[in-house]
Amino acid sequence: MGLDVGSQSIKLVGMKQHGDTGTLKTFGQIATPPGMVENGLINNPEEVGQELGKLAEQLRLKGSRVISALAGQQVYTRLMTLPAMPHGDMRTAALYQATSFLPINVDDVTADIYPVREFEDHKGKMVEVFFVAARKTQAENLVKTCRIAGLKLTRLEIEPLALKTLYQPQISKGKVYGIINIGAQRSYLSIFQDNNPVFLRSIAFGCLAFYLQIPRIAKNECRLDDLNVEDPECRSLLRNLIDELVRSLDYFRLQNKEDSITNILLCGGCARLGGIDKLLSREFNLPVQRGSIDQHIKLPQTITEDQINDLRFDYPVALGLALRGGA
Known about the structure:
The protein is α/β, with parallel strands linked by helices and 327 residues long. Among the domains are: 62 residues, 2-Layer Sandwich (Dna Ligase, domain 1); 121 residues, Nucleotidyltransferase, domain 5, CATH 3.30.420.40. A hairpin with a 4-residue loop joins strand 11 and strand 12. The protein starts with a strand and ends with a helix. Helix 1 crosses helix 3 and helix 4 packs across helix 10. 34% of the residues lie in helices and 34% in strands.
């Protein structure tokens, strides 16, 4: 089971795995209680847990094991270089290094590392690792929420790893690729090298901007799917996001001159916008394509076209988590 707790909606999927692929058995979402989830932090586990419990009961998933992800501004990442040593010792060393940049005390975070590559220099055998940390409160509140909902949380990840799992068949065989997820309130760019995360940049822009600033969307006269990036209103709203993404890509290139990004995948609500993949391709001078769920997941025969679109654009994190749940 994959669980994605967002600021605007909570999504839950159930899947039967077949190796690296899966058959979707059930899925659904409910609105997140207003103000209860902000920047990835669940402020009221009791209330959110009760609402999640209703969804789990509706989907007949009560008592199931579930995997979820941490997200938001309070997830801190950094690429580090450490001497080669056992994983536990490297994690301790990474936490020690993190005291120089974490805005909170290391005693208040839960953290892990992902080895990226090994190499040897004048200091001996070294390992480049991707360090990830989040507030313990954020993780603890998610555990409480699941317990109240009648679900058994067995693993916590970060969203980019779930997306990597989902989009593996689409990922370029080249060494370096990116994934852009444009969510309800925030977006992020994640870059992978040899399938390991090496860069994560969060951006304060989400699909809600369209509902707040485009009158015909706000009045429910049209959907995001009906808009096109060539519309002046859309282009104006997207400008800041595009500029931030270009700056992030330029920064990565500056720090990694030997690694060329081969392609970028796009997901999230704003991936529904007509022509957004072509617009970003021109702006980045890179191939950009929407993420697909067809190659990894077998869908029920009774599913509608609208439901397929919802799964493709709104459920990628939950689907990726469900696929990774047994791995």
